[in-house]
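Mods, move this if it's the wrong board.
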Amino acid sequence: MLGRSQVVRPRFLVAAFGGSNPPAPAISLIMSDFLNKYKSVYNVFLDNWDYQSHYVMFLEKLLYQKTILPTHIKEMIFAYVSSLNGCVYCKNIHAEIAKELIEEIKHSSPLEDISMSSIEEEYKSVLKFSYKVNQDLDSISQDDIDEILENDFPENVISEVIAICSAAQYMNTTVKAHKIPTLNENMNVASAKIMIQKGYQGLAEYMINRRNK
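Not the wrong board. Structure tokens:
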């Protein structure tokens, strides 16, 4: 504790008006390998489960529970948006899921040419709309909405597409910012199959059980 006659002299005052400098504080070197820590996005989720669990449940309900769009189209949108955002990790997994769900889809179908004949005609406008949601929100017009509704979709499908694009953007940012490496082909196929079998919530529970063993 300082006495009344003791005065703390800031270092800049010492430099300006003379006197002795106080000893420099010890510098603590913090070594972290954080950017090499994660090999799977699910490990990021599990390490932050208090809040990431809500995102996983959101994905489960959005992509795997019955909604307006079939699951394979939702996975195609997710893969397409991931491709646009340069997230190869997400693009590969979700494209593989889509291919598993419908065998006739070629690897490049939703990613390089969204008008290929292998995509059902009524969903082409949905994929085109997802491009604008991800790349150029200001360009969205009533014509885009009308093109989708002309295929007998209810208006709610617009919000569903926006939600899928937003979910993909969040996942892409999480993967890229954590520097998670792209899975090799075998791991990618295996991950896609597990996801199809268990769903997002089921996969999380599976990984939690493995951690607890």
